[in-house]
Amino acid sequence: MRKKTMYGLSCIVLLLFCLCFNASANAASAEDEVLQVEKNWIKAANALDFKLMSSLYWHSPKTTQYSPDQLAQGWDTMEKNMKMYFNGPESQHISKWALDKGQVIMISDNAAIIIGYHNLTNVADQSSSRHRFTRVVHKIDGKWLIVHDHESRVTTDPDSTVVNPRS
Description:
single chain; Nuclear Transport Factor 2, Chain: A; six-stranded mixed beta sheet; alpha+beta
């Protein structure tokens, strides 16, 4: 009887350990999934792959995109702008995007913010620029989708303006 009790307790402890380990693995996995959205965004931008880029966004009237010169509200407006970029004369001066200092902030199990910097190199003239970005993503029907997108060019050294309230 004592052997059965010890065996049962051992199984329960092992099960609890597995459940705890799985919960922390899922948290890291969610951050990895969210960061993959940004990696796919860069891949789509570099390849001028409209289909991939389109698959990263929530196709809703509530989706927003803020660039330095405009606020686009609704997927229909954003889609039109993206098609011009991917298929229009702008696509002739292909820029290569690279992620720098990307960070995921989990808001909840189904909402997150991706922040960071992009380094941009214009292939034609080898000029470069740096951009800061913020993407708000939401897990909709099991898939992480961009619901708000903001990108702006950095005109000063971003490292000199970093403020850390914890320090």
